Amino acid sequence: MSEPRITIYTPDSLLVSPLRMVREMLRDLASSRELAWRLTVRDLSAQYRQTFLGFLWAIILPLANTLVWIFLSRSGVVNVSDTLLPYPVYVFTGTMLWAILMDALNAPLQIVTASKIMLAKINFPREALVVAGIYQAIVNALIKVALLLIALLVMGVHPGWNVLLFPIGVFSLILVGTLIGLALTPVGLLYADVGKAIPLLMQFLMYITPVVFAMPKEGLPATLFQLNPLTPLILTARDWLTGFTPEHMSYFVVVNMVSIVLLFMFWVVFRLAMPILIERIGS
Fold first, then answer.
1. I need a labelling partner for 283 at 20 to 30 A (CA). Which of 21, 50, 54, 186 fits?
2. Is 272 exposed, middle or buried (CB count within 10 Å of its CB: 0-12, 13-18, 19+)?
3. Domain membership flag for residue 48
4. pTM score of the predicted model
5. CA angle, 258 as apex, 182 and 90 as ends, to 5°?
6. Range of the domain at 242
7. What does the alpha-carbon distance between residue 279 and residue 283 come to, in Å, rounded to a whole number?
């Protein structure tokens, strides 16, 4: 029987060679998959076990937001510019895609925060928590997409062959959401204010993303929409879903490539910060 591997954290642990660190990161990532799945099943079961509507909660909040914006638009309270899609379809697809992004963004901090006791007492690959967050985001996204496709058919929208590319759009939203969530997690563990500020900041960001508003044609709003890296993600995913040809593919590809690089960088930061954070949690 082989002896268990013992990891000792010292100040020199932060000075390991980059190549060795990458090997250790990939090794721990591979060994964390089973634990990540068990954590995912546990958290999803707890999330929906004591609810009467169960998995329908994955669509209720986006649907409620859609109904609010349709009411505001038709009552004249909010002046919404014309969209190529019927506005109910436009805002419903936008809020559902935004919900997928938010699920992925919130998952890392929520799972790591909920696992503080386990982190302080048990030595396991910390990557399991991040992978569990990705698993949860994927499962919730699958539920949302299935219900979204049914709703689109009811609304009379019949996706074309472009819908085969739609999973790429969903993956990009999960990628960027995980990136933002992972970047905020170390600070969020130290300061609970981060978790409370995320909904407020993301709500503002949603208003300069083509979720409920169409792309402005000119002025400062047009510039903000264009500079927002979430804009090509929402637009491209919506276009693939509803049968339109994406107009921002180059921007979409650039955002995803940069996000992959940044995700790896923040993974390194997360890995280096966790021993210090665990020490503070346990003290």
1. 21
2. middle
3. no
4. 0.85
5. 80
6. 56-282
7. 6
Most distant CA pair in the chain, distance: 73
Residue 12 lies in a domain: no
Nearest CA to 181 out of 109, 101, 272 is that of 109
Distance between CA atoms of residues 188 and 105, nearest Å: 12
105 inside domain:
yes
- 90-105 pLDDT, tens digit each: 888 999 999 999 999 9
Asked if 65 and 58 touch (Cβ cutoff 8 Å), the reply is no
Please name the residue ranges forming H helices in the chain: 18-31, 33-48, 57-74, 87-114, 116-121, 127-154, 166-190, 193-207, 219-227, 231-242, 249-282
Residue 174: C-alpha distances to residues 39, 108, 171, 263 (Å):
18, 12, 5, 12
Tokens for 26, please give them: 């990939």
For the chain, what is the domain count? 1
